[in-house]
Amino acid sequence: MIRIALLDDYQGVALQSADWRSLPGGTAVEVFHDHLAEEDLLADRLKEFDVVMALRERTAYPRSLLERLPNLKLLATAGMRNAAIDVEAATDLGILVCGTSGSSRTTMELTWGLIFALTRHIPEEHHETRAGAWQRTVGIGLEGKTLGLIGLGNIGGQMSEVGRAFRMRLIAWSQNLTEQRASECGAELVSKDDLLSQADIVTIHLRLSDRTRGLLGSRELALMKSSAILINTSRGPIVDEAALISSLSSGAIAGAGLDVFDREPLPEGHPLLGMDNVLLTPHLGYVTHETYATFYGQTIENIQGFLDGMPQRVLNPEVLEHLRQI
Question: What strands lie across the sheet with 96-98, from one edge to the other?
Answer without folding.
Answer: 27-31, 2-6, 51-54, 74-77, 96-98
